Amino acid sequence: MSDIKHPATVAIVGAGLVGCLNAIYFAQRGWNVVLYEHRKDMRLPEEKINQRGRSINLAVSERGLSALRKVDMGLEEIVLGAAVPMRARMVHLGKDTQTSQAYSVHGEHINAVDRGRLNELLLNVVGDLPNVRLGFEHHLLHANLENGTMEFSVGPEKIKVFKTADLVIGTDGAYSKTRSQMMRSMRMQYSQEYIDTAYCELSMPPAKDEQGNDTYALDPNHLHIWPRHTFMLIALPNLASTFFFLFFFFLDHSFTCTLFMPFEMFESINTSEKLLEFFQENFPDSIPLIGTKRLVEDYFANQKGSLINIKTSPHNFKDKALILGDAAHAMVPFYGQGMNCGFQDVEVLHEILDKHNVLPSKHENGKIDDLEAALDEYSRVHVKDTHAICDLALYNHYEMQSAVTSVRYLARKKLEGI
Ligand code: FAD
Q1: Which of 203, 222, 322, 357 is the most buried (most CB within 10 A)?
Q2: Which atom of ligand 1 is nearest to 19's Cα?
Q3: How many CB atoms sit inside 10 A of residue 63's CB?
Q4: Which pLDDT tens digits describe the chain residue by residue (418 residues)?
């Protein structure tokens, strides 16, 4: 092997939450990083206007925060500055019956953050790094991963462009093109499972306090759940923010609610009368907080998303390609761990690259010393954890919809002192 070394390049496909964090980690290791993203830059004013009113918020937990902390660029503080702490869940059992269940006796909590805002914050950090190039409106079509060649369709004209990299990392989500290209070259185990439940986002606007100022309609330091066994409503608080208020209308003392229910129930509730009757019967306390007009508008306008569990193994193709985040392990959202687990992938990967002392340089023949051993180890140690968390997410579907209301569950919580 020649001794002459050249800088190594990693192509990261997908500038969502996990792709951005991974780009930051690789840039810090000194690699040349190119981050390709199918969408336009979400920070452009016209893109912000497109997102107006579409607020999806996520719970960030210690698993994800740990990965942000390791970067040592103040990322954890930046993210927590945009988040609302949720210290307990509030179970809405009946019209006037609620019970608060703390997440921990030690004060540990999860944090609600707007997904778009979080992505923007990470993109801002990525955009300031000198060794990262961003390629928006680049849609991966095909890849020959053996030689690191990728074909993209670029811009509205859909011009075909070929790019190369020493390592290709797919963070392109549950329907990952990188994954499908890897599967052409290797024996990857793959399984997917759709559940019968769909979800629909509804917004709960701010209420007014006695002085007429905006305030939260519910206690903002709780994750609110209306469990009804085969379906449920949840609500997460949005930060009472100021400066991006104009573009993100719902980020001001509002809650984002998500209605989870079987597809057939969504199909059968097909008139405003049926919808209001259904809410009156099952979530009566939420109606005045959401407002009947907004409830009807959101329910009929917003998409009914499907929920999928995906497991893959291994996650790497030699030292040529790797998948992280939803591309490797999409999970149903009931454990609130999809993104957190994707962030953890990045943390674990870079710990292993450190352990193998993988340097940001390649030999003349393109080989990067010890990279294959490191990526093989990543799959060997981490894949089983991602499978376990996919299973836990499915189990928590039952826990959130049903078990939290059981007498045994409530008694156990009482014994635990929380
Ligand atoms: P994505 O966010 O899907 O990003 C993929 C990126 O790749 C996108 O920007 C996309 O445009 C781009 N892309 C796709 N295809 C291509 C291509 N061919 N070429 C170029 N770019 C491409 N997780 C939590 O941790 N906590 C929660 O509370 C939580 N709640 C959730 C609630 C709901 C209702 C849902 C549906 C999910 C929830 N999740 C939660 C899961 C979380 O949203 C995902 O796990 C997370 O967004 C995955 O991030 P990612 O970067 O891997 O993929």
Answers
A1: 322
A2: 51
A3: 18
A4: 445 679 999 999 999 999 999 999 999 999 999 999 999 999 988 777 566 545 588 999 999 999 999 998 999 999 999 999 999 999 998 777 899 999 988 889 999 999 999 999 999 999 999 999 999 999 999 999 999 999 999 999 999 999 999 999 999 999 999 999 999 999 999 999 999 999 999 999 999 989 988 999 999 999 999 999 999 999 999 988 644 444 444 457 999 999 999 999 999 999 999 999 999 999 999 999 999 999 999 999 999 999 999 999 999 999 999 999 999 999 999 999 999 999 999 999 999 999 999 999 999 988 999 999 999 999 999 999 999 999 999 988 877 766 656 655 555 555 555 4
- 17 C-alpha vs ligand 1 centroid, how far in Å? 7
Question: What CATH number does residue 108 fall under?
Answer: 3.50.50.60
Residue nearest (by alpha carbon) to ligand 1 atom 47: 339
Query: Closest residue (by CA) to atom 32 of ligand 1?
Result: 333
pTM exceeds 0.90: yes
Q: What single-letter amino acid sits at 52? A: R
360 lines ligand 1 (CB under 6 A): no
Whole-complex ipTM:
0.99
Are residue 374 and residue 390 in the same domain, yes or no? yes
Please state the φ and ψ torsions of residue 381, each to the nearest 5 degrees: -90, -25
Residues 314 and 259 in one domain: no
CB of 201 shorter than 6 A to ligand 1: no
| Alpha helices for 302-418 (secondary structure H) | 326-329, 338-355, 371-401, 407-415
Q: How far is ligand 1, taken at its centre, from the CA of residue 283, in Å?
A: 29
Q: Tell whether 87 and 232 lie within a shared domain.
A: no
Probe target for ligand 1 pocket from 40, 55, 58, with the most ligand atoms within 8 Å of CB: 58
Does 317 lie in the same domain as 295? no
17 with 166, same domain: the answer is yes
- Residue 170 Cβ < 6 Å to ligand 1: no
* Alpha carbon distance 154, 37 (integer Å): 10
Domain of 179? 5-192+308-405
